[in-house]
Design goal:
Elements lengths: L12 E6 L5 E4 L1 H7 L3 H4 L4 H4 L4 H15 L4 E6 L6 E9 L5 E9 L5 H4 L1 H11 L6 H12 L6 E7 H4 L12 E10 L16 E4 L4 H6 L5 E3 L4 H7 L3 H9 E11 L2 E11 L7 H38 L10 E8 L9 E7 L5 E8 L4 H19 L4 H13 L7 E9 L4 E7 L5 E3 L5 E3 L18 E4 L5 E5 L11 H15 L8 H12 L7 E8 L3
Antiparallel strand pairs: 1-2, 1-5, 3-4, 4-5, 6-7, 6-11, 7-8, 9-10, 10-11, 12-21, 13-14, 14-15, 15-16, 16-19, 17-18, 17-20, 20-21
Helix pairs in contact: 6-7, 6-12, 7-12, 13-14, 15-16
């Protein structure tokens, strides 16, 4: 390993990222200059095959990756071929939806200037302070806070609006660059709100003559000493904008690049009385931008995944149910852990004669794989319920569907047809835990029903049971996540559920069904290790 030679302050600092296995995930422009290797040649390659090829280097990098995997920051030194030269490395965890390793490399030699050597603490600050959350705005604020006033008197971050709008298929280049201002920091001045000259959240179209437009069209670094006409006119519309523009005498704009994608740009400014930006400052600005871009990209990707998951959750769960007169229904659902969707589902389908079908199901496992199976079973169950097929016939068809899905998953299901006018219900189960019935006097019983086999196992006998459902009685359908965990046996969980229902539905202090459903779930969910669903249905008293 031998870094390329460079002048004072040039090619002395570089940043790049690794995946947990030590493969190069990103390669900054500063890394290209320091190691004389273009990104196209190194991305995806093990770092020990690209840079640290000696046996002692491999051992050192192996220890570094192990420490970072344990959540620690690792620093080390690799001697260079020239006397007195060495490469100083700082490796730290890179959080986010795609975890990895951030590496800051500094070439240490006697001929390097003080500007270059003083850059390492600022990059270390950036590594420590930027990316504390997975929120885009907060991350951008952290980035400008590191830069101002330590490096510049002002900093503004713009992100491509198409990326923020999740239009990933569209090109980011063109005659104009549309970007959103996501962070502003000016030394000695308060943050400007919506009525200020540089409001955060404003979406701008930068023409090809602006530094921001040029950066987002592919320029690497731009040094300039005055604002372009378009920007000066825009800022000058506000009285404070004229004062701001007059106070800065040197500007530096660099792109925000992460994983080979252009996210936007950051513009730095220095006021009169401070040295203007030079080539060494451009190197440091690129290092700051690389750290900010990696964290911003993590936050953006997390935000996109979270919005997608929330949209899926809203789409997979039933909308506001149409409940027939004479029947009250309340429901509560929570996927396990950080998942937005899981394998549980419930549905309420009104059918003829003032009746309603209640369905609760539970696909083995949780997370997106279980959700993919769940949505197919839920859609099929809803369609079959709308056709008013008998409960046993519905379960047989769902069983065949589950058996034909990839991986042959299995699921449990309870299917109940409630008839408020007849004060009765017809229930069939496919391997599901038995419903509970709380009567008007507060007494709760576990219903003894033929359990059947889970869906997907080829069970043919799903025996329906007719039950009386008098006015004031409440039927509880649920999934096993509510009553079973490693710390609580199933029998104890069932007894706890029965006690919670009796308490929440006691005639001495009657509660609305929604309130009772929430109270029961809160009481039992502290032991939950799986997706949790609870549906309560009550025949209204005359």
């Amino acid at each position: 390993m031998q870094p390329a030679p460079g002048g004072p302050g040039l090619a002395a600092l570089a940043t790049f990222t690794l995946d947990p296995a030590g493969r190069l995930a990103s390669w900054s422009r500063s890394a290209e200059r320091l190691f004389s290797r273009p990104a196209a040649d190194v991305l995806g390659q093990p770092v020990c095959d690209v840079l640290f090829t000696g046996p002692e280097h491999r051992d050192l990098i192996g220890r570094a990756l192990a420490e970072v995997a344990a959540g620690q920051v690792w620093t080390g030194r690799i001697a260079g071929e020239e006397p007195g030269a060495a490469l100083l490395l700082r490796c730290e965890p890179l959080p986010g939806p795609a975890p990895g390793v951030l590496v800051i490399a500094q070439l240490s030699a006697a001929h390097l200037s003080a500007v270059s050597l003083s850059a390492a603490p600022l990059l270390a600050q950036a590594a420590a302070r930027i990316g504390s959350t997975l929120d885009v705005t907060r991350t951008a604020d952290e980035a400008v806070a590191v830069a101002v006033p330590a490096f510049a008197d002002g900093a503004v971050i713009y992100l491509a609006e198409r990326l923020l709008a999740d239009e990933f298929g569209a090109s980011l280049t063109g005659p104009t660059a549309v970007a959103r201002r996501v962070a502003v920091r000016l030394a000695g001045r308060p943050d400007y709100g919506p009525g200020g000259p540089l409001p955060v959240g404003e979406v701008l179209a930068f023409g090809p003559g602006t530094p921001q437009g040029q950066i987002m069209a592919g320029a690497t670094v731009l040094l300039f000493d005055q604002l372009d006409g378009e920007t000066a006119e825009r800022v000058g519309r506000h009285p404070a904008g004229l004062e701001i523009a007059a106070s800065f005498t040197s500007y530096l704009a660099v792109p925000l690049l992460a994983r080979g994608a252009l996210l936007g740009c950051v513009t730095f400014g220095r006021a009169a009385g401070r040295p203007p930006f030079g080539p060494a400052d451009a190197e440091l600005a690129s290092g700051l931008a690389d750290r900010a871009a990696s964290c911003l990209d993590n936050a953006r990707r997390y935000g996109q995944e979270r919005r997608t998951a929330l949209a899926l959750q809203r789409g997979l769960m039933p909308g506001r149910p149409r409940v027939p007169p004479g029947l009250e229904v309340a429901h509560w659902y929570r996927p396990v852990g950080a998942n937005m969707v899981g394998g549980d589902w419930y549905d309420i389908v009104p059918v003829s004669g003032g009746r309603a079908v209640l369905i609760v199901g539970d696909v083995m496992g949780h997370g997106p794989e279980a959700a993919a199976v769940m949505v197919q079973l839920r859609t099929a169950a809803h369609t079959l319920a709308d056709l008013e097929l008998p409960p046993a016939a519905v379960l047989r068809r769902l069983d065949r569907l589950a058996a034909g899905l990839p991986g042959a998953p299995f699921a449990t299901c309870v299917y109940a047809v409630l008839d408020p006018a007849g004060s009765c219900c017809l229930i069939a189960e496919a391997g599901h835990l038995p419903p509970l019935l709380t009567r008007g006097d507060g007494r709760t019983d576990v219903l003894d029903l033929p359990p059947g086999l889970p869906l997907g196992l080829g069970g043919e006998a799903f025996q329906p049971t007719q039950l009386s459902l008098p006015p004031g009685a409440t039927l509880a359908l649920y999934t096993d996540g509510l009553v079973e965990s490693r710390s609580r046996p199933l029998d104890d969980g069932m007894a706890a559920l029965a006690g919670a229902l009796s308490g929440a539905l006691a005639p001495a202090r009657p509660a609305a069904l929604d309130t009772a459903c929430a109270a029961v779930t809160r009481q039992l969910m502290q032991h939950g290790e799986d997706d949790i669903t609870l549906v309560l249905a009550r025949v209204s008293a005359a």
